[in-house]
Specification:
The protein contains 1 helix and no strands. It is flat and about 70 Å long. The chain is 40% helix and 0% strand. The protein has 63 residues and is mainly α. 0% of the residues are buried.
Length: 63
């Protein structure tokens, strides 16, 4: 039984997609979306800096 059929079959390659031609409205929407993503990234980065609120769980001091 020395056939090449054993094992997993390789997936077929997908054809490369063609470059799309965008008009001005599409380009404006894409640019706006990129700016919103950038603003969200900056806000997330700022939100992760430093503690928010209290010091977390406090120990009572009892042993």
């Amino acid at each position: 039984m020395s056939s090449k059929q054993g094992g997993k079959a390789k997936p077929l390659k997908q054809p490369k997609s063609e470059k799309k031609d965008y008009d001005e409205v599409d380009m404006a929407n894409i640019q706006k979306k990129k700016e919103e993503e950038k603003a969200l990234k900056e806000l997330r980065a700022k939100a992760q800096k430093g503690p928010i609120g209290g010091a977390g769980l406090k120990k009572s001091g009892k042993k």
